[in-house]
What we know:
Number of strands: 33
Shape: globular
Distance between the termini: 82 Å
CATH topology: Methylamine Dehydrogenase, Chain H
Helix content: under 10%
Oligomer: single chain
Strand order of the largest sheet: 1-6-5-4-3
Strand content: over 45%
Number of helices: 1
Largest sheet: 5 strands, antiparallel
Radius of gyration: 23 Å
Structural class: mainly beta
Protein name: PQQ enzyme repeat protein
Number of domains: 1
CATH superfamily: YVTN repeat-like/Quinoprotein amine dehydrogenase
Amino acid sequence: xxxxxxxxxxxxxxxxxxxxxxxxxxxxxxxxxxxxxxxxxxxxxxxxxxxxxxxxxxxxxxxxxxxxxxxxxxxxxxxxxxxxxxxxxxxxxxxxxxxxxxxxxxxxxxxxxxxxxxxxxxxxxxxxxxxxxxxxxxxxxxxxxxxxxxxxxxxxxxxxxxxxxxxxxxxxxxxxxxxxxxxxxxxxxxxxxxxxxxxxxxxxxxxxxxxxxxxxxxxxxxxxxxxxxxxxxxxxxxxxxxxxxxxxxxxxxxxxxxxxxxxxxxxxxxxxxxxxxxxxxxxxxxxxxxxxxxxxxxxxxxxxxxxxxxxxxxxxxxxxxxxxxxxxxxxxxxxxxxxxxxxxxxxxxxxxxxxxxxxxxxxxxxxxxxxxxxxxxxxxxxxxxxxxxxxxxxx
Length: 395
């Protein structure tokens, strides 16, 4: 009788765990066929026309992955055929999505569990198959940026992790420190963020300090819960923005007359450069400057100030040229750079910044920011909370 009761109890516990476990509240539908490869990139066409669109409020930037496009809304991600927009795979949980990202060849989906954005799942972009997962301590409003490390941002806490999802550093208000006294400062508010290879930068405001502080973590040097820094020092500003970091430098937009201040790896200021930032300077609510890298054959980072697109040398972070009156940073399209402007896309020489022409795109009455990425010969625009895929217009 005792054995029978134990069997019933164990069966009940197993049933309860199965009903309440994450797997029981997850719906994963992998792809059943290969994606249609997007058309190859060719010369910039005379015009682009819309192919398809979908709501995607949980992708803070266009998510082009594999041969497709990923859209996300509510608690659900779906991998779409880039050419037709047809859904190929989907993944959803009974939790709200905090944000999404892409790093090291995998789509990242971060879900909110109670007050934290803690449930991170990775997905293979071509099939939707689940990959590794882990738990974070990120707060709502977080972004996932960079690669090796990936940086999870937050108002008073950040953490970094490697491509294998192993956490490499925590900084700020740590929820449950394994060892007290390992954080160098407390009560700081994090204002803006950037990431590069083995570097995670944050501009912060700390109690008792006269101005903002630039801190650049070196995740590979972290020991236990104690973060390692390349540099951390007050920079004598109030109202600055961290724009980018490279392996050796950090670039900060100074308040007032727009200037880009550059700091070396030791935190020493090594120069200031005037920036033609346009009529409007944007202060991103998530603290992440709108930038896009040019790719392996283009040593440039393109930064949207809110009113202009500025080309920064990817290594030195020095400004090279500016295109005013733009709506986003732009994307490489073959040997050209396409930058969103009110009437369409400016066809720009990526070396000189000279605009050749404007390729017409009908965005109706939209005048807000536009982020754009190329998927082969197609263009993926994020207009607010909606993804719009464009293709070369046919005669």
